[in-house]
Amino acid sequence: MCKKPIPALGMLFILLVCFLTTDAQCLQPPPLDSCNGTEPSVSDNEILTSGTKKWYYGPTTTLNELTLRGGTLVVCGDLTVDKFHMDSGKIVIRPGARFVVGGGLGYGLVLRGNSAIYNYGSFQCIRNLSLDNNYASAAAPNVIINVLPSSDFKMSNQYLVINNPYSFFVNNGKADFHGVITDPGSATGAVCLGNASQTKMTVFYNRKLNSYTVPVGSACLNVSEFSQIYDSVTASPNLNTCLGPTYYSDSSCRLWGCKPNAWGRASLFRGCNSCMEVQVLSIQFTRFIAQENMEGIQLQWATTSAANADMKFLILRSADGKTFTEIGTVEPVAENLVSNYAYIDRNPIPGVIFYRIVCVHKLSGQKKNSETTKISLNKSYSYLYPNPFKKTFTMNFKAGKKPTSLEFYNTQGSLIHKQPVLFSQANSIQVSLPLNMPAGSYLLKIIYPMETEIKRILKEE
To answer: Does residue 259 share a domain with residue 232?
Structure first.
């Protein structure tokens, strides 16, 4: 028998219940509404009631007044509404779009239930925003999701207030508030922060146990000046909390039950100016090893949390453990949840080699060094350096063995050049190639009396 379809916001609450039960991830939005430029366009002073869906896809515009009373607004361009009313309904801000709730009404915006804001682009509210319990319920929650890592949510001089168990804020990108207030009636995990997200505010108020959660990866919460906390903020140790140089937590309210600096299991960084500092400072290297193989020296390291696309790892090498030179870079991918990394030094220097990894934030320049690891080459393989080279390169032989000849093949497998190796007492030789040998990639076959070895080399102009 057929079943009636579940309303979209009702389905969202089912997903929320699953999320709060499994703590697996932050709430996800429904499929993104399309914007073809042919859909019904919203008009100034319009009221969008339940079942009505309108789009804005024109040039940058300010409307005088607009009301959502159960309807849907899809923003595909740059839209400001000076006097915006919304007690229920849905707003979708598409990637690259911008929606601004102006301050023309002079009082806060109150979402009373059955309300959702899905921000894929930029959302700014120049009024306090309350997720209210007027008629919010399991089937009609209030949901705000800052969807993408690039999504920007701005209320720099305003408050966001959550006061009931059916209201939720999810940040996967960047969010900026004057303050966030989670009242006693809020749900556990009412504020869910995605991996590598940044949530910034001047003041912080919390009256609910574990109102903040970071189910996957790590997130940054930046409180610059003040907090008033009545219950532990989080059970997530991967919530990296950046407390500003002038920050303090209210202790004058102890008689009324407040708990100054009751951040729970959050990792605290005091005297911190921004989340950019925390992103690198919170990285901890848990493993760093160097192993020799046929390709060179394999470096492997792990961190307590995954680096993101704003960071990079510099690979440093030294012959004496004091003076290090950068030899390579590893770039984490966007939304990377993997905390294991690798790099191959294909041209190791002879003898004892020291390695170090440096995690760098690309914008702030903040750095975090690994411990130094070292390895002694046992010369199970031949090594050549530099590679790439211009005219000559040096080749170190396998331990106790010396090649009889060298053969150079192009990438199509054709033999280009062959030369004998003259025996000497040294364990290395300098190899010079014919002047007319063009620049490019070659396979070098190193021929020993009983075996062969193949290396890839690159000749530069």
So the answer is: yes
Whole-angstrom CA distances from 336 to 93, 279, 311, 316 are 25, 14, 11, 23
**Element housing 124 (H / E):** strand 122-125
Question: Residues 269, 201: one domain?
Answer: yes
User: By the 8 A CB rule, do 91 and 99 touch?
Assistant: yes
In a domain? residue 201 = yes
**DSSP assignment letter at 101:** E
Alpha-carbon gap, residue 105 to 125, rounded angstroms: 12
**Sign of the Cα pseudo-torsion (58, 59, 60, 66, in order):** negative
- Cα(283)–Cα(359) distance, integer angstroms: 8
Does 226 map to a domain?
Answer: yes
Distances (CA, A) of 148 to 197, 252, 311, 331: 9, 39, 18, 20
- Return the CATH number at 318: 2.60.40.10
Cis peptide before 386 (omega within 30 of 0): yes
pTM comes to 0.69
Q: Which two tokens stand for residue 86?
A: 């919304």
Question: Has residue 321 been placed in a domain?
Answer: yes
Domain limits at 215? 8-31+107-280
DSSP assignment, residue 17?
H
Indicate whether 352 and 394 sit together in one domain: no
Domain CATH number, residue 408: 2.60.40.3080
Whether 358 is covered by a domain: the verdict is: yes
Q: Which residue type occupies 328?
A: G
The 10 Å Cβ neighbour count of residue 397 is 19
Tell me the CB-side half-sphere exposure of residue 107, using CA atoms within 13 A: 3
pLDDT 10s per residue in the chain (461 long)? Answer: 333 343 455 545 444 444 443 456 899 999 999 999 899 999 999 999 999 999 999 899 999 999 999 999 999 999 999 999 999 999 999 999 999 999 999 899 999 999 999 999 999 999 999 999 888 999 999 999 999 999 999 999 999 999 999 999 999 999 999 999 999 999 999 999 998 899 999 999 999 999 999 999 889 999 999 999 999 999 999 899 999 999 999 999 999 999 999 999 998 999 988 988 887 777 778 899 999 876 778 999 998 776 777 789 999 999 999 999 999 999 886 555 568 899 998 778 778 999 999 998 887 777 889 999 999 876 666 778 788 888 898 887 766 678 889 999 998 889 999 999 876 656 778 898 888 899 999 999 998 888 888 888 889 98
| Spatial contact of 389 and 306, defined as CB atoms under 8 Å apart | no
Element (H, E) at 8: helix 8-22
Task: Provide DSSP, 247-268.
Answer: -EE--TTGGGT--TT--BTPEE
